[in-house]
């Protein structure tokens, strides 16, 4: 399947991930096997809990970025598989800790692990997976990869703490919001792409900066779309996956824009409802109404598109092949979710 | 100060740590500086919370083990200081998470960090320090050190989850208790000593196994003494630092021995009170009475002495100098706390 016979911009977005899964079939199979094998422990709770959240699916977006980045820079190898597994373990560890911190009851459409095994097991199994991620990375034999991922891991925690400290600050500046999501989300996308590139071998170092820029901007686009979807994107269907950020009082981009563009009355509304103790049942519907009527939903999605375009532009120095096209398609896919 | 002029077995135990602090003055100063410098973050909560728990003191036992192990194997260097800091960061991260998991209100004689900044900040700052530990280790330039500490970190988490799963099992076999404390406590002592030895340079690899065995047995002795002290050691003074394990329903060695040696009535007592919901105010005093009257306190301390002796025996292949003597003294110090 080449770019010529199946130009990505004509492919339905839903097919993009499926096509990549087929391009990466062997690599993903190796990674999936490691995701199970490296969570094995004589303490049963660990593989049980880890298997529960890992097998709940998720799109494996971050390991896919690692694998495609490696292919775009010369090819994936067993070290790349170890790295892709490490990236997913780090992501899983942050999900486990996030669910405790946010007190979320659902994750990937299932009960959150903490609602099955308790907060304590979620905290400790998160720690376990985080540690195992580093053991896996040691197997890549690259101190540079370890430096990139350990730095990203501390930046992620910084972003999470920053978000915690900024909670219910309705006057959060856009720049501070961007700095939070760059840390809590984009840092891992960036590290996944950069380290993936480096895992391809010594020749690939010249592409590492481009892949890092790609990953960072893709991560920003991804999180901004996620934050738009939490208010129904531009279609505003209130479903079970809508309103989590609202109920947690998180100030995200749609809110920042809607509040800035709103009347004094609207601003008072936002100032009240982002204090979670002052929310009432009907407030979410009104919040979604304001986000749509002020054009904040559209503006948020446009912002995501801008970062997706930056991600794609960062790829221009890479060889023009199916892997570069796949990375570009992935950027389209990430923003397509919002429509 | 040499072993000849001041034989350790004549030195008062309280002086041992002070003497080591003076032998390691420069190394500890470098480590203390890194403990502050590497917790710096633009997100204020992180250095605030980290500084709170790090500056609360603690004996810096684990970094001291790393530093002395390096000296015993050829000398400490900047990589050793980075490693010693990493070891203390990992320890601090586990303390922060433990306090959330155990819902402990006091740590190092102060309010637990979670009681000042909340559970969420404690979880996330723990994650941050853990990540920073790995960044520090990358600076040692040794994949072997990263392998040892990442493996130890996953083993620690395994031990914590195992302990959680074994909670209120009053019939916990001694071997399973030992396996839990070997994982949750001794693994970091072992890694601190082994990695410290390796940090001294290529010549030192021949001593790594001896230092690993030293660290593991020292860690076992240390935790067993800790568990004895939680019931007042052999002196049974009920103070504010006594009874934490009891109130959390942890089955530790003094309890295992006291229950095994007790009457049917005593066993029924233990089976009731280790279920924390069935404890009453006077139960701790009776528990301490049983642990003393059955000789379980003495037997527990004897077990700790046995491991301390194994730790000291593991040092026999090292050069006979003040550093080997210091490691040996440290083993004496760890068990001396029980008297």
Layout of secondary structure:
The structure is a homodimer.
Chain A: H1 13-23, H2 25-37, H3 45-55, H4 61-72, H5 78-102, E1 106-107, E2 110-111, H6 113-117, H7 119-138, H8 143-166, H9 174-199, H10 208-229, H11 244-248, H12 253-261, H13 264-273, H14 283-293, H15 296-313, H16 322-336
Antiparallel strand pairs in A: 1-2
Structure overview:
Chain A is an all-alpha fold. In chain A, 70% of the residues lie in helices and 1% in strands. Chain A is built from 16 helices and two strands. In chain A, a hairpin with a 2-residue loop joins strand 1 and strand 2. Chain A is globular, with a radius of gyration of 20 Å. The N terminus of chain A is likely disordered. Chains A and B meet through helix 5, helix 7 and helix 8 of A and helix 5, helix 7 and helix 8 of B.
């Amino acid at each position: 399947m080449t770019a010529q016979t199946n130009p990505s911009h004509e492919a339905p977005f839903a097919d993009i991930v499926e096509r990549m899964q087929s391009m990466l079939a062997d690599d993903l199979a190796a990674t999936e096997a490691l995701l199970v094998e490296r969570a094995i422990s004589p303490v049963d709770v660990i593989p049980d809990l880890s298997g529960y959240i890992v097998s709940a699916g998720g799109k494996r977006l971050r390991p896919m970025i690692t694998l495609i980045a490696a292919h775009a820079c010369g090819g994936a190898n067993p070290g790349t598989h170890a790295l892709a597994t490490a990236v997913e373990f780090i992501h899983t560890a942050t999900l486990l800790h996030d669910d405790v911190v946010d007190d979320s009851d659902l994750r990937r459409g299932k009960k959150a692990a903490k609602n099955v095994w308790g907060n304590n097991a979620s905290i400790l199994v998160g720690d376990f997976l985080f540690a195992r991620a580093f053991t896996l990375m040691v197997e890549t034999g690259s101190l540079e990869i370890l430096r990139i991922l350990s730095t990203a891991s501390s930046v992620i925690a910084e972003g999470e703490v920053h978000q915690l400290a900024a909670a219910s600050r309705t006057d959060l500046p856009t720049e501070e919001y961007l700095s939070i999501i760059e840390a809590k989300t984009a840092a891992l996308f960036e590290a996944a792409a950069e380290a993936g590139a480096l895992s391809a071998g010594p020749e690939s170092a010249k592409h590492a900066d481009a892949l890092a820029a790609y990953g960072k901007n893709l991560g920003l686009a991804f999180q901004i779309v996620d934050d738009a979807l939490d208010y129904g994107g531009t279609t505003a269907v209130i479903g079970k996956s809508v309103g989590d950020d609202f109920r947690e009082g998180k100030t995200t981009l749609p809110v920042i824009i809607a509040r800035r563009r709103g009347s004094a009355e609207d601003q008072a509304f936002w100032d009240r409802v982002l204090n979670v103790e002052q929310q009432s049942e009907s407030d979410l519907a009104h919040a979604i109404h304001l986000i749509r009527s002020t054009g904040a939903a559209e503006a948020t999605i446009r912002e995501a598109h801008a970062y997706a375009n930056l991600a794609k532009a960062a790829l221009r120095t890479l060889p023009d092949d199916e892997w570069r096209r796949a990375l570009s398609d992935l950027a389209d896919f990430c923003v397509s979710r919002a429509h």
